[in-house]
Design brief:
Structural class: mainly alpha
Distance between the termini: 44 Å
Order of helices and strands: HHHHHHHHHHHHHH
Strand content: under 5%
Radius of gyration: 28 Å
Shape: rod-shaped
Helix content: 55-70%
Number of helices: 14
Amino acid sequence: MPTAPEPDEDNLHALAPPPQPVFHVEQALLGALLLNPHRLGDMPGIAADSFSTAAHAALFTAISTLPPPDPDEHARNTKWLGQVLTTARGQARALTAPYLHTLVQVCPWPRHAPAYARMVEAEHARRRLHRAAEHLVQTVNDASLPHPVQPVLDKADALAALVDDIARRFPPRAGILPRTPAPPTATTPDHAEAIEEEQLLLATATAHPADIESIGWLLPDDLTLPLHTGLWQCLTALARRNEPVDPVTVLWEAQQRGLLDDGDEPGEVLRLLAEPAGSVEYWAERALQRSLLATAEHTGWRIGAYADDPANTPFQLIVGARRSLADVNAVRTRWQHAIGATPPQRRRPAATTRAGPPTTTVAHAARPTRVTR
């Protein structure tokens, strides 16, 4: 999300307003507080980090930490304004007395300060949501994590906690969804590895169809290629009907379902299904883990896209983010079933909670020897 540039300490031109409307709203709010400092008590949701520039944050810090002036004396002289400027310049040396005068002049109605504060708070919520969504995506793509599922879920929980925090200030209105188009699904860096592991899953399940029932937590959409999705549907259908399962029967079922209409060669499908290795449960867990991470990544991108769109209100951001996070929670439930974990009771850490230690599973501990194809 683009943010207003922070002022260069030695360049007064850095205070020129950027095109974002929130900059003008912040000016109006600060101007109202400079004129009537007692209005600070009417806006409990605002803090220094709610502002988009260092200069405005410094001014708000000075206003909120200095003792308020006597109203009559404040109306007669600028002594308190001088104290505000001196204090704020400790954090933003580019601030000048003329800029404080500008803030007072551009404030249309000081009594509207609570409304201005609400607007500043809404924009701050957008920035916070965008940062949390970025952190989720970054964790998914962190190659240094040997077992990334738990750190990713921790980031998803932190994002959900932030959404709850925003909702306490901006209760969502029913039925209002963001109109922002969802970003396209990104291609994962290990796409080739995913294809190979899914082929091993399909071949191993064909060789050991009795194991298919035990992995009902794996869904066809967890696989990355349409052909693999269709073949898994064929396998589960044959197993459910208690019909013979081997490469030939699966191929015939695939033909009945129209899976070969896209040009896939029957001989290639037979070869794919004839090279089992390891256990069905292991490859299924690998596929589900990949699906969980892909879902989390897409959720982060989608929430980030919502937060990037200034047309979305906080109410729309909350509803859209919660709908997106529901996708992660659905896969999380199946993952916990797969690894035999007991679902936690409404895990909601604070929005700043850092990722916890990685988890291990029986499947990881008993990882079979990889077959080179």
